[in-house]
């Protein structure tokens, strides 16, 4: 790599790392946040979903913004916004203030990952690009290991507030590298941004999520609940209709005419909704129900991450040889079986016999699923549209997690006790198995290229 390429890679890694790091830290900090600021499970839901609403809606428009204003400028704005929001979260005097800051943080985060990857693709080519993306993936995935450990230690020994301030360190380093790199922005003069579509999507999701989160507190009979639900659904429907008519859609609906693309995204919704629900419930229950320290609760799912890192690459190669259908069927069903193992959790708690077996089985299923799922979806779309296809799939995953978390209080019955934990495990298993069945029924393996005949 040249000096410039090395700097670009570090900027891309650090710029994305903060978003991945924050996502792993927040679940560990939720019990401490609600204990200090109040609000119980509702506050915990909003802390997660306020971020996902703006992230899921604006990640679709991130590519258009980068084209219009330049990748470096957008990345710099995203970093500064993420850093300011992190400081505001750390200083939050009330739950309401923190939730608004999380929404701002999600909006900034929406521009970090796409801009970071765009920097790599515009500065690397061929085999060097594949290697750079591989390094980026490995380094950003490490946040899934580092985040729970750092977050848990800070929550246990200092404060949950410091767990969010940790974002400022990589952000500062990245901004310094950007300033010293002397990078030139490339802009497309004909780029167009569908701000109306972005607003309709954000407000639509926000209205529906508000109704789902607050419904257990106010009841379906409350005008506030059904009115925000109807208005939210209406605005989201208007967003979909607008994407059919606008010249520059942020959600190209024609992509969903491709069988593997739409089937893969339906499977994504089931699988990532289940992962978001499971990730939140396990970490929070281990602290509030099993009385574990935040550090140990954050590390509880570490076996899943390790198995995914160790075997995802090998499974990806096998999927390329045999096709993704088998892996996308068996993987989610295996994760569903792992979720059912959580039903062995009892009042006489034992991590080693009740939680660890589930994490190992779910980790094996996750390793079987992730790479084939990604390759099936992106492989179904022509390479020149892979960027928007990836953004759509990412948005589907985020919105699925958003809805799953919004339904948390309804799923667990208002309280995350042992019974509620078991209910969440059943819902997780059902969603995972649904993802596997969807893949079996809908995914089609690409035709194999026949081997060349040997020369006479």
UniProtKB/TrEMBL annotation:
**SUPFAM superfamilies recorded:** MFS general substrate transporter
Q: Where in the cell is it found?
A: Cell membrane
Pfam families in the cross-refs: MFS_1 (PF07690)
Keyword tags? Membrane, Transmembrane, Transmembrane helix
Membrane topology, record value? Multi-pass membrane protein
Residues covered by the Major facilitator superfamily (MFS) profile domain: 8-447
Mark the transmembrane ranges.
7-30, 50-66, 73-93, 99-120, 132-154, 160-179, 191-212, 224-241, 262-286, 292-311, 323-343, 355-379, 391-412, 424-443
The entry's protein name is MFS transporter
Species of origin reads Microbacterium yannicii
């Amino acid at each position: 790599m040249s000096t410039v390429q090395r700097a670009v890679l570090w900027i891309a890694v650090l710029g994305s790392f903060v978003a991945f790091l924050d996502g792993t830290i927040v679940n560990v900090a939720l019990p401490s946040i609600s204990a200090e600021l109040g609000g119980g499970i509702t506050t915990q839901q909003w802390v997660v979903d306020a971020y996902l609403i703006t992230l899921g809606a604006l990640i679709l428009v991130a590519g258009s913004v980068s084209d219009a204003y330049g990748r470096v400028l957008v990345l710099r704005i995203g970093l500064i916004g993420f850093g300011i929001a992190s400081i505001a979260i750390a200083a939050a005097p009330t739950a309401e203030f923190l939730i608004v800051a999380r929404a701002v943080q999600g909006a900034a985060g929406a521009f970090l990952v796409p801009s970071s990857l765009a920097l790599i693709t515009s500065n690397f080519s061929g085999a060097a690009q594949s290697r750079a993306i591989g390094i980026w993936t490995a380094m950003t995935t490490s946040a899934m290991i580092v985040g729970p450990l750092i977050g848990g230690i800070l929550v246990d020994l200092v404060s949950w507030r410091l767990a969010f301030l940790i974002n400022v360190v990589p952000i500062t380093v990245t901004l310094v590298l950007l300033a010293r790199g002397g990078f030139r922005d490339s802009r497309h003069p004909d780029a167009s941004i569908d701000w109306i579509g972005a607003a309709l999507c954000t407000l639509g999701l926000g209205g529906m999520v508000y109704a789902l989160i607050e419904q257990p507190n106010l009841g379906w009979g409350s005008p506030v609940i059904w009115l925000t639900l109807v208005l939210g659904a209406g605005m989201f429907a208007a967003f979909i209709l607008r994407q059919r008519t606008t010249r520059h859609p942020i959600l190209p609906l024609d992509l969903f005419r491709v069988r593997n693309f739409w089937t893969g995204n339906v499977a994504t919704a089931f699988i990532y909704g289940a992962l978001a629900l499971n990730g939140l419930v396990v970490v929070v229950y281990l602290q509030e129900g099993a009385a574990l320290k935040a550090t140990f609760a954050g590390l509880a799912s570490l076996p899943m991450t390790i198995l995914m890192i160790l075997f995802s690459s090998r499974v990806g190669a096998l999927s390329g040889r045999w096709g993704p259908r088998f892996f996308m069927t068996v993987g989610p069903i295996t994760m569903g079986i792992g979720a059912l193992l959580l039903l062995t959790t009892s009042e006489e708690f034992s991590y080693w016999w009740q939680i660890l077996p589930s994490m190992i089985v779910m980790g094996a299923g996750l390793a079987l699923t992730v790479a084939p799922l990604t390759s099936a979806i992106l492989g179904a779309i022509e390479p020149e549209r892979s960027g928007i296809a990836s953004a759509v799939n990412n948005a589907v995953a985020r919105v699925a997690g958003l809805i799953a978390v919004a339904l948390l209080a309804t799923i667990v019955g208002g309280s995350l006790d042992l019974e509620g934990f078991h209910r969440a495990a059943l819902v997780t298993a059902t969603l995972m198995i649904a993802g596997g069945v969807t893949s079996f029924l809908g995914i089609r393996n690409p035709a194999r290229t026949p081997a060349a005949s040997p020369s006479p």
